[in-house]
Every structure is written in structure tokens, then in C-alpha cells.
Amino acid sequence: MRIDKFLKRSRLCKRRSVAKKLCKNDKVLYGDKLKPLKPSYDIKEGDEITIYIYNKKIVFKIDKIPETKSISKQKARKLYTILQEEHFEI
Length: 90
Description:
single chain, 90 residues, alpha+beta, Structural Genomics Hypothetical 15.5 Kd Protein In mrcA-pckA Intergenic Region, Chain A, five-stranded antiparallel β-sheet, 29% strand, globular
């Protein structure tokens, strides 16, 4: 599954267009070396992703890739584990 679709389905981003824009602006990064991801990056279980969204930095690990388009809020939260979350002042 593409990273932009995952961000939408996991409800980390409200819209896929927002997820795409974050990727294109280098706000979605992969691994320890923080490599910028394209919206088409094919995620795998166990990937560690860092996302800068609004005034937050969220580091999470992908636990499960959703199989269906529509997913409930409770199931969406079980798709990933937050490893670190920081808030920034604007």
C-alpha cells in the first residue's frame, strides 16, 4: 500500500491530498536516516515513519496494513504504534 493511502486510512491525515502534499514537501520521512518519502512509497509492516503535521512531530511504526478501503476509527488506531510525539510552538 502507498504511504499516502496509509496515512489517510489510518486517520493520521484527514485527506489523501494532504498526505500527498506532506510527502512532496519532505514532511514524511523513513527510518533512522530520515529519508524523504514520495507519496507512492510502498510501505511494509515494521517500517518506522516520521511525519511532521501541523505543529507536531510523530514517529510511528506500522503494525498492520489495512485490507479494505473503509475502516473504523478503533481499527485505524491499531494499524500503527506511536513511538514518539512532540509538539512545537508556532
